[in-house]
């Protein structure tokens, strides 16, 4: 009898909590790097650090970060919360409740880009700021990336209650 009861409790606790919540948590460490190193970054939440550095950020929250360095154009980058590929598996393995838990707290999401690695443009050069992958290879310009995700990220920032309307969200580069 006790074994059946303990098994029932274990199964209920697993199905009532989201798998991604247990495995990933609701925060993600996001790394920030820049060329040149030593750029000051400021997140939407007002956190600052000097690159290379990292912050714990909520997986379910869209954000933006601004890089500044003497002699370089400031550059703002959107950080997008994207649904992870494990959502369907979580619903199958953890049940509908687990999927709902993970979706509601953002644990099934991941933040992109990570690392946020930017090659800044010297002031007056006319060059675009570039997004780099973890190996320093060019992914795209910051402007191209921001244009791709702008609508989704700006709506997400409004949904978080940080701004009243999408038009109030400061534009990224």
What order do the helices and strands come in, and which of them pair?
Elements: H1 2-16, H2 19-24, E1 27-35, E2 40-43, E3 48-50, E4 53-58, E5 63-68, E6 75-83, H3 87-105, E7 109-112, E8 116-119, E9 130-132, E10 138-141, H4 142-159
Parallel strand pairs: 1-8
Antiparallel strand pairs: 1-4, 2-3, 2-5, 5-6, 6-7, 8-9, 9-10
Overview of the structural elements:
The chain is of the alpha+beta class and 173 residues long. It has one domain (2-168). It is 34% helix and 30% strand. It has four helices and ten strands; from the N terminus they run ααββββββαββββα. It has helices at residues 2-16, 19-24, 87-105, 142-159; strands at 27-35, 40-43, 48-50, 53-58, 63-68, 75-83, 109-112, 116-119, 130-132, 138-141. A five-stranded mixed beta sheet has the order 4-1-8-9-10. Strands 3-2-5-6-7 form a five-stranded antiparallel beta sheet. A hairpin with a 4-residue loop joins strand 2 and strand 3 (48-50). The longest helix is centred in the middle third of the chain and has 19 residues, at 87-105. The protein starts with a helix and ends in a 14-residue tail after the last helix. Mean pLDDT is 81; it is low at 8-22 and 96-106.
């Amino acid at each position: 009898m006790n074994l059946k009861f303990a098994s029932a409790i274990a199964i209920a606790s697993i199905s009532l909590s989201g798998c991604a919540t247990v495995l990933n948590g609701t925060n993600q460490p996001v790394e920030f790097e820049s060329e040149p190193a030593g750029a000051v970054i400021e997140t939407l939440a007002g956190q600052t650090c000097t690159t290379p550095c990292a912050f714990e950020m909520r997986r379910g929250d869209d954000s933006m970060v601004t890089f500044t360095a003497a002699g370089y154009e400031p550059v703002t980058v959107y950080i997008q919360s994207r649904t992870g590929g494990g959502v369907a598996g979580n619903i199958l393995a953890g049940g509908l409740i687990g999927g709902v838990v993970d979706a509601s707290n953002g644990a099934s999401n991941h933040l992109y880009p990570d690392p946020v690695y930017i090659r800044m443009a010297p002031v007056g050069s006319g060059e675009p700021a570039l997004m780099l992958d973890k190996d320093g290879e060019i992914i795209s310009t910051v402007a191209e990336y921001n244009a791709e995700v702008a609508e989704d990220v700006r709506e997400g920032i409004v949904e978080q209650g940080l701004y009243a309307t999408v038009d109030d969200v400061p534009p990224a580069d």
